[in-house]
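Sequence design from tokenized structure. All designs in this work follow the same two-part layout: the structure record, then the generated sequence. An example of the structure record is given first.
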């Protein structure tokens, strides 16, 4: 992941990973390797098995005891779980 086209989870164009650590993203993008970025709009269409969804729910429940600094992680998990529940 990396970018977004009007569907960012931090700003309309910013996806959490790059928004949270732009310096790391710059290192990756400047590396002498082929990089394929897959936008958040594409990854939001991905499906997750029932087992994966349960692991995400369990991780979310455990994240509730983490420090407040982990709020972006909790929010991301909550958003993804809500989106997965809406999928057919």
């Amino acid at each position: 992941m990396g970018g977004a086209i009007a569907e960012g989870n931090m700003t309309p164009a910013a996806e959490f990973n790059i928004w949270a650590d732009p310096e790391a993203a710059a290192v990756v993008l400047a590396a002498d390797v082929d990089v394929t970025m897959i936008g958040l709009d594409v990854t939001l269409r991905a499906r997750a098995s029932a087992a994966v969804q349960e692991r995400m729910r369990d991780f979310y429940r455990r994240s509730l005891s983490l420090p407040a600094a982990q709020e972006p992680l909790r929010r991301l998990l909550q958003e993804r779980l809500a989106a997965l529940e809406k999928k057919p």
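Residues 71-86 form the longest helix (16 residues). We note this feature because it recurs in several other targets discussed in the main text.
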